């Protein structure tokens, strides 16, 4: 059955989508994905790249956050902020909270031997958090620009769902494999088979996109409102996650010289500029902005996407285009002819 989240009209009005992934929540998901051998097309290149660089202290975090099962929620602080700020806040978690969460986990699955000393050993907690900080620097930091780019594109799709069908449309389409909307109850199937009823009482929920997850998770203790994670739309951009490259160069890496030569053409340059000026535009809207046929706009967009200059997501029968950091850099470069 999973979580049964009970909505009122006020809850629907206060439900919203996060602007970006929450760093510690996404880190916990990335740690699980690192240990899980599923979805090789999406993540195996990333796994291979980071597996040989695991920092000192990482094993502690890996043993406490298994690929499937329960993990301490106090480590996944569901708030925005820098990883350093959030980990420092976790460091101040009350001993009673740590004891309670570890006891609940121990009743369901084995814990590492050292974990039983965690509530009363500040030095041990410090080692664990230092390890998490190093894991963030390895698993997420080099890719954060791309990760936030994917979630920004996904957020534009969610905005269209909201405008086209209201909050109920948003809830229905967030993660159909793991979430079912049976008004006024949102049923979230949990990988750890947790079951609970959550009455929101006017709080609404915060829907948080995740690049590294295909499942949904619920944190009912999050403030100022409970959090439900969902995977970013698994359309064409996510099929390129195997090409995640450190440094935020974009999912396809630097554009090839052939693609750059093609971009010197007047029409293709106009298409790139139009995408930058009209973010999340459809191919039809792009064609109208440039003054070309939709088929021509689609062809130019394909070249720009393959060069890593724009990204494209699909929403039902419509594709939506937005510019990448590399595309903006090209537009802003001297001699580009752009005023951006």
Radius of gyration: 22 Å
Shape: globular
Query: Structural class, from helix and strand content?
Result: alpha/beta
Q: Share of helix among residues?
A: 40-55%
- Mean pLDDT equals 83
Largest β-sheet summary: 4 strands, mixed
Distance between the termini: 51 Å
> How many runs of DSSP E, i.e. beta strands?
11
Question: Descriptors for this entry?
Answer:
340 residues; alpha/beta; 46% helix; 13% strand; single chain; 4-stranded mixed β-sheet
How would you sum up this structure, described in words?
The chain has helices spanning 9-14, 23-35, 40-51, 58-64, 83-91, 95-106, 122-139, 144-173, 257-263, 266-277, 283-290, 294-306, 325-332, and strands at 3-6, 16-17, 179-182, 185-188, 196-199, 206-210, 218-219, 227-231, 281-282, 310-315, 318-323. By secondary structure, it is α/β, with parallel strands linked by helices. A hairpin with a 2-residue loop joins strand 3 and strand 4 (185-188). The chain starts with a strand and ends in an 8-residue tail after the last helix. Mean pLDDT is 83; it is low at 234-243, 248-260 and 334-340.
């Amino acid at each position: 059955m999973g979580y049964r989240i009970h909505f009122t009209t006020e809850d629907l009005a206060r439900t919203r989508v996060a602007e970006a992934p929450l760093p510690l929540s996404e880190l916990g998901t990335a740690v699980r994905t690192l240990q899980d051998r599923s979805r090789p097309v999406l993540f195996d290149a990333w796994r291979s790249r980071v597996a040989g660089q695991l920092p000192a202290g990482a094993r502690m975090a890996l043993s406490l956050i298994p690929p499937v099962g329960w993990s301490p929620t106090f480590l996944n602080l569901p708030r925005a902020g820098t990883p350093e700020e959030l980990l420092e806040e976790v460091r101040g978690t009350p001993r009673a909270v740590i004891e309670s969460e570890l006891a609940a986990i121990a009743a369901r699955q084995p814990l590492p031997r050292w974990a039983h000393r965690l509530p009363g050993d500040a030095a041990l907690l410090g080692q664990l958090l230092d390890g998490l900080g190093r894991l963030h620097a390895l698993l997420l930091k080099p890719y954060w620009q791309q990760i936030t780019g994917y979630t920004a594109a996904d957020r534009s799709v969610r905005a269209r769902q909201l405008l086209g069908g209201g909050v109920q449309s948003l809830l229905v389409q967030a993660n159909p494999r793991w979430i079912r909307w049976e008004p006024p109850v949102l049923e979230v199937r949990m990988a750890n088979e947790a079951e609970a009823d959550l009455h929101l009482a006017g709080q609404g929920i915060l829907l948080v996109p995740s690049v590294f997850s295909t499942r949904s998770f619920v944190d009912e203790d999050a403030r100022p409102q409970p959090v439900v994670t969902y995977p970013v739309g698994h359309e064409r951009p996510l099929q390129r996650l195997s090409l995640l490259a450190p440094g935020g160069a974009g999912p396809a890496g630097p554009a090839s010289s052939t693609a750059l030569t093609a971009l010197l053409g007047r029409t293709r340059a106009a298409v790139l500029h139009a995408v930058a000026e009209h973010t999340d535009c459809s191919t039809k809207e792009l064609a109208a902005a440039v003054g070309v046929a939709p088929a021509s706009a689609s062809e130019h967009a394909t070249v720009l996407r393959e060069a890593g200059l724009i990204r494209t997501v699909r929403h039902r029968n419509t594709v939506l285009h937005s510019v990448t950091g590399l595309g903006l850099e090209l537009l802003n470069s001297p001699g580009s002819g752009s005023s951006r």
